[in-house]
Amino acid sequence: MPKRALALLLSSIATVLVLFALYTWFALSWSYSEGERAGYLQKFSKKGWLCKTWEGEILLSSMPGAIPERFAFTVRDESLVKPLQSSMGQRVQISYEQHKGVPTTCFGETEYFATKVGTGPVNPVAPSEAAAGQ
Q: Tell me, what DSSP letter sits at residue 41?
């Protein structure tokens, strides 16, 4: 293989790697949406073959007796792990950022990354109760 072709091949590979790294950095640093969810922490574990990530799941219930919706999230901040581990089965409030287009599961299995965790009783007020109190 001539030197010019080898240099062209290596520079093409380097360009692709740099573009992939820039795209990954952008996907992880730019937040598509932010929000909060509250529910009962059902599952929290460290998962992955090569890249171990903390993955959790809370059950959201809009009203008593309703079928709960599952909300899966990823924790990248190690300071949030202990509070979540000690809150298994309890009601928690999670602040999160949604990062769309992250190219690999090495950063997390979901696109929702927890940024803050609140534990303790979270008492949602139903709209009818809020109107009655006014």
A: E
User: Closest by alpha carbon to 56, among 104, 13, 114, 97?
Assistant: 114
pTM: 0.73
Provide the pairing of β-strand 91-98 with 112-119.
antiparallel
Give the H or E element holding residue 48: none
Q: What angle do CA 92, 94, 97 make, to 5 degrees?
A: 170
10 Å Cβ neighbour count for 57? Answer: 16
14-61 pLDDT per residue, tens: 999 999 999 888 887 888 999 999 999 999 999 988 889 999 999 987
**For residue 90, which of 45, 125, 39, 56 has the smallest C-alpha distance?**
39
The Cα 102–Cα 28 span in angstroms is 7
Give the Å distances, CA to CA, from 19 to 14, 15, 48, 66: 9, 6, 25, 46
